[in-house]
Amino acid sequence: MPRYALKIEYNGAPFAGWQRQADQPSVQGAIEAALARLEPGPHTIAAAGRTDAGVHGLGQVAHCDLQKNWNPFRLSEALNYHLKPAPVSIVGAARVADDWHARFSALERRYLYRLLMRRAPATHQVGLVWQVRYDLDIDLMRDAAKALIGLHDFTTFRSTICQAKSPVKTLDELRMESVKTPGGTELHFHLRARSFLHNQVRSIVGTLERVGAGSWPPERVAAALAARERSACGPVSPPQGLYLSEVEYSDPPFSE
Fold first, then answer.
1. Rounded distance between C-alpha atoms, residue 135 and residue 137, angstroms
2. Is 41 left (phi over 0), alpha (psi -120 to 50) or beta?
3. What is the pLDDT of residue 183?
């Protein structure tokens, strides 16, 4: 059975998350249903990472096994036809080795979080950003974020229902950039690691927002991390600002 890697973009708003659900729409379910239109029978795809309800994908990666030898371009075109009108798009497809795995072959994952600082209600960005109607002190947030870089026990910043075997993770990058937009400013958080805990990114962003708003001193973030207690975390930011932006592999399957 030939194995194919799929690069996937999606708007997470109408879905209960990536993972297939018995009674709710999911991104995985939409793609598996499209695959069944191409080749009869049940299909199960595996992804580089599971995203929660409302979280978006810019560069999610999954793999599937098919009976037919598909031209990768034809496969992506056929899937996109059958995915309509769901806000899911196959932006790349490639034949990969039989033992290649979207999750276990991945070297790192990158997330983007978009926070819009603007008093006027958002229009075009609704459902795509977290909007706050006040300015944040980005310098204070950057200062606080330094404590989170590196190898740490991130118990404070993971969901109580997280299924990871260990809360110890290495956060390789946590970078913030300010981007001017009409009538406001977007703050982009770029996070990079081999793997993340459940709700880790949203917990970090929500906590740093409290620093930027002046509710937390920067040093409280380091203290929260050291506490290793979920109760020490700040509020969890909403899902609509979060994007799985990229997954890295030693031998990238998709040509640029």
1. 7
2. left
3. 79
